[in-house]
Each structure stands twice: as structure tokens, then as C-alpha cells.
Amino acid sequence: MTQVAEEKRRRLPRGLVGVVAVTALLGLYGWAVAGRGIAMIRTGEPVLIAIGAAALVIPLLVLLLIAAEFRLATRVQRMADELSDAGQLPVDDLPRSPGGRVDRAAADAAFGPYRDAVEAAPESWQAWYRLAFAYDAAGDRRRARAALRRAASLH
Known about the structure:
Elements: H1 3-10, H2 16-42, H3 46-85, H4 104-120, H5 125-137, H6 141-154
């Protein structure tokens, strides 16, 4: 194995420490909410039982959402690694303002070929992956995530 490949394998994904820290904080929050919910249920009063049961749903939803996001993140990283190894990773070469924002007109102009590629090959996860980053550059985060989910399901 080459030295570059070894360094690539050892390097932690950017932002992983922050994600783990926020997840740990959310876990503590969920634990605290669940503890309060259980305490309310144990009182035996009907209103508090109902509130306590509802409070237990919150940590469950948080855990499910975190698990779904981690799953998507690992799949997206796997796809990025494959595209990078093949030399096909999308390049962010759009002009930016001095503040770092992507020029909207340039992003809109660059969007067309990515959309056309998905229309030509709707079962290509690579095309959907690139379309997601075109959406992101254009500022449409909702569609970018939807395209990434589609790419992950096709991968």
C-alpha cells in the first residue's frame, strides 16, 4: 500500500469530532428527558402519565434521526471515496464572492449538465451524487439531501 493511500485511510473524516460531540450531548439530553418522563409516569397521576409517555417519544425520535443521519453520512462518504478513487469526484470550481458564497448565476449555469446526466441515466448513483452537489452549490439544500438519499439508495 502506498504512503498516500495509508494516510488517506488513517485520516478521520472532517467534522467527525464535532459530530460525535454533538451526538453525545444529544444523548445526554435524551437521557435526561427520558428520566423525567419515567419519573412522571411513576407518579401514577393520569395527566403526568400521559405527559411522561409523550416525553419518552422525544428521545426515541432523536435516536432514530441520529441513526438515519449517521447511516446516510457513512454511505455518502463511501460513495465519495469510490468517486475519488476513480478520479470522478465533482470539482467545486465555481466563482465565489469575497465572503466565500457561490455565485448564484454560475451555480445555476453549471446545474444543467448535472440535471441532464440524471435524466439520461436515472439509475446512476454517480449522476445523482453529482446532482446533489450541484443543488448544494445552487443553495437548495432540501433537494441536495433528497438527491444524496437517492444516490445512496442506488449505490
